[in-house]
Amino acid sequence: MSFELSADHEVFRKVVRDFAEAEIAPHAARWDREHHFPVDVVQAMGELGLFGIVAPEEYGGAAGDFTSLCVAIEEIGRVDQSMGITLEAAVGLGIAPLMTFGSAEQKERWLPDLVAGRALAGFGLTEPEAGSDAGATRTRARLEGGHWVIDGAKAFITNSGSSITSLVAVTARTGETTDGRPELSAILVPAGTPGFTVEPAYDKLGWHASDTHGLTFEGCRVPEDHLLGQRGAGFRQFLATLDDGRIAISALAVGLAQACLEQASAYAKERVAFGRPIGANQGVAFQVADLQVMVDAARLLTYKAAWLKDEGRSPAAVKQAAAVAKLYSTEAAVSATRVATQVFGGYGFMEEYPVARFYRDAKILEIGEGTSEIQRLVIARGLGLPVE
Amino acid sequence: MRIVVLVKHVPDATADRTFDPADNTTDRAGVDGLLCELDEYAIEEALKLAEDRDADVTVLTMGPEQASDALRKALQMGAHDGVHLLDSALHGSDAPATSLVIARALERIGSYDLVLTGMASTDGGMSVVPAMLAERLGLPHIGFVGELSLADGTVRGRRDGDSASETIEAALPAVVSVTDQINEPRYPSFKGIMAAKKKPVETWSLADLGVEPAQVGLSAAWSAVESFTERPARGQGEVVTDDGDAGRRLADFLAQRKFV
What we know:
The complex is a heterodimer of chains A (about 400) and B (about 260). The mean pLDDT of chain A is about 95. By secondary structure, chain A is of the alpha+beta class. The radius of gyration of chain A is 21 Å and the shape is globular. In chain A, α8 runs antiparallel to α10. Chain B is of the alpha/beta class and about 260 residues long. Chain B has one domain: HUPs (Rossmann fold). The longest helix of chain B is centred in the first third of the chain and has 16 residues. Chain B starts with a strand and ends with a helix. The model of chain B has no long low-confidence stretch (mean pLDDT about 95). The interface between A and B is medium-sized, with 16 and 11 residues.
């Protein structure tokens, strides 16, 4: 039994940390302030191979393990959550569905650039009135003369409107099933397709340097072969990629909690009040101690879930572990940012220190890729509870 | 074509470095070591040259067991193979002995066209090994190059001085040291890290190189560290309280120290 990552993972962690501290950390506050999406840094992350860690070698990937991807997301997220989510979404929502359900032609056309970080793909599932309730999807696609004609709108779609976004996969109602329920399918829409409009970037509480847009489709036509996977399997296909995403978001949360622990701990040792470091006060020291507990617990849950996946354990076991990790880690990250800003006192409320940015960035972790409520639902159902 | 890059495993320059009180040599055990940052520029330059032509990049280091970490990092960046010169008798070797051992190693490698090094090690910092090595091998040497190109059996390097830049051409094989201005070293990629595990590293002892232990090590060194003292802790500094003459006192302070 071992609670450590392998030596290879640690070597890789060191490289990603060096990169993150040299190329991202010094600029993160400015990108946040200016709502700037740094395409050049995304491409540098591509050169580092971060988008291709788990992708097959034939598309330029390294065929590495999922744990390595989590290490990368944690380390990027430790200095900048915006770049962390950019990586997480690019792989989990952009590359993964294509890799899992794409046809040979679709993979050959789109994957090499995505895997190299030269391009980004978004996944358009959420709609203004369909979030957790993905079955309420209103966007429609109808077949007309060998083309899908798409009408509708998507909301909060990450990496969907950057200058290097090459496509967005959107879920749409393509009919009704025999029992009268909506038939949902996923369709690939290349960037720049007429009738596909990327709305202006959202004004968000956090993740200011991440690329997030609403999307509008008005008579948007794409060839019939742009269907991703099976017709009518859109919802099931989407659910299949969710568990991996939850583990990855959990890793992003671990990076954030780790950053809070490091910064709060350092500040508590150096900031003097009443003639001694504030860490001499139990009221402060105990809060920092609690941060260590949160970070350790979140990290162990995250990497256990990643390990179960890498070991090829049963989908049910991975699903449960992913939901447990995502729920705990993201709630721990929100608590950690609250503690860190409190330790920093008035300065914690100033954008001069990263903890203020962390505080704004944390909240979405409890919402995106399955809210905390949905995680509890998944976990309760996993326990066999008859919860609705 | 083969390019050999000389690299060194050094104590982390950002850590508290010290000497080993037993023999006044650099303490390599108490501080984390890493690939000398200045050597990364030589590796990057070699990789760029190799990408443009059919060339192999061999990285070579002399140092204790953990020096293989420096080779590993270079292999992760993209070098093709490595040679580790490892022998307990090498401990405490000075620059002349180091250049002797590396010269023998290059002779053993045999076919090479270019030897690249960084501009200095961040521990010893003498910058003399490349020149000594060239002298021992009877090869041309260009030091402190900020721009480099290869063509028709020659290497051409530009070095920038305070008042002028010189461009120097030499016949291959040659020994060239490069500055930290020459390029921006790459980070190892995830694939590079995975691939490095399978790349060959040979370990050669003094016996393999035909060097007598008496020719190297601390006892053969031409110079020795007699003693060392820790740098005194930084003082509190001087606080100037403005009584209307603070500007003059600040100026006096700077003038006394010849800053103005």
